[in-house]
């Protein structure tokens, strides 16, 4: 599997965050990158929906992705979240 594609389109390639965690080909660092990208995509979808657009391909719950990321990093990863609608605290 191509890491670039996995990072660019995680919601299309993986059926769940657990699938990312259990993927044997990717390193821990790559899995973290994929999950962070997925979080960004879901946040972008949320913003789009707030602006009246339909976003059908991001059905994954953000909590599941954050839980998977927490499992890899041991933190809530707040230092990687920008202060914006796409992930701000």
Any chance you could write out the topology, listing elements then pairs?
Elements: H1 3-8, H2 10-13, H3 17-21, H4 28-50, H5 62-73
Helix pairs in contact: 4-5
The beta-strand count equals 0
Shape: globular
Low-confidence stretches: none
Q: Tell me the structural class.
A: mainly alpha
Chain-averaged pLDDT: 82
Number of domains: 1
SSE pattern: HHHHH
Determine the strand fraction and express it as a percent band.
under 5%
What is the count of DSSP helices, taking H or I runs of 4+ residues?
5
Binned, the helix content reads: 55-70%
The value of Rg in angstroms is 13 Å
Main sheet: strands, sense, barrel: none
N/C terminus separation: 33 Å
Describe this structure as you would to a colleague.
56% of the residues lie in helices and 0% in strands. The chain is globular, with a radius of gyration of 13 Å. The mean pLDDT is 82. The protein has one domain. α4 runs antiparallel to α5. With 89 residues, it is mostly helical.
How is this structure best summarized?
The protein has 89 residues and is mainly α. It has 5 helices and no strands.
Q: What are its keywords?
A:
89 residues, globular, mainly alpha
């Amino acid at each position: 599997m191509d890491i670039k594609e996995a990072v660019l389109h995680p919601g299309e390639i993986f059926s769940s965050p657990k699938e990312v965690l259990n993927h044997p080909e990717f390193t821990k660092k790559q899995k973290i990158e994929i999950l962070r990208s997925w979080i960004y995509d879901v946040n972008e979808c949320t913003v789009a929906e707030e602006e009246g657009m339909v976003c059908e391909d991001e059905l994954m719950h953000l909590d599941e992705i954050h839980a998977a990321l927490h499992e890899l990093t041991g933190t809530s990863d707040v230092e990687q979240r920008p202060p914006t609608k796409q992930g701000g605290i």
